[in-house]
Amino acid sequence: MLPEKGLIGLGYWDHGFRNLSTAKRPINKMEDIEGLKVRVIQIPIFIDTFAALGANPVPLPFPELYTALETGTVDGQENPFASIETSKFYEVQKHAATTSHVYNPLVAIFSKRVWDKLSEDERRIVQEAATEAGLFERQVSREANQKSMQTLRDQGMQITELPASEIDRMRQKVKPVTDKYVQSIGPELVQEMQAEVQKVRDGK
Length: 204
Known about the structure:
globular
């Protein structure tokens, strides 16, 4: 779908799973999210997801987030642990939980206008480099998120590692939101993606 937008997709890189942090209370179960004012990305699916979980989603630009947390305008936020560390949210957030509610990929893209000017060999070289870099980036990203999780603990943040059963409860709670966006994205595309994810989970 990207070429019609003037882009060439070279692959998916990794930003990690997004996790919830808050200054208000520990998140030990899904019900602990209810009533929290949570800053979310300014797109409908994030707003709908946290509303379904019982939170009060507050869409805010990222540059405004630290101040909003510091002043109590919002109780919490959601980001990969590496971003929570680098943004120093541990200074204004005491609790976090491994909600893993969204996987955050990064899309490596290339200008189609430039791509069309490249020879087949040049395109192959660019694609191979992007694929190789992506494998390395994913490894670095995952290691960084694990390291950040420990760093956040060292900085005094209490991190609750939620069991798979609690994650599944959250997944079921937001299923109406998932179903809503499946229709707008396209059921066939979503089914194709889910089939690929299942292959990975099955080790195929």
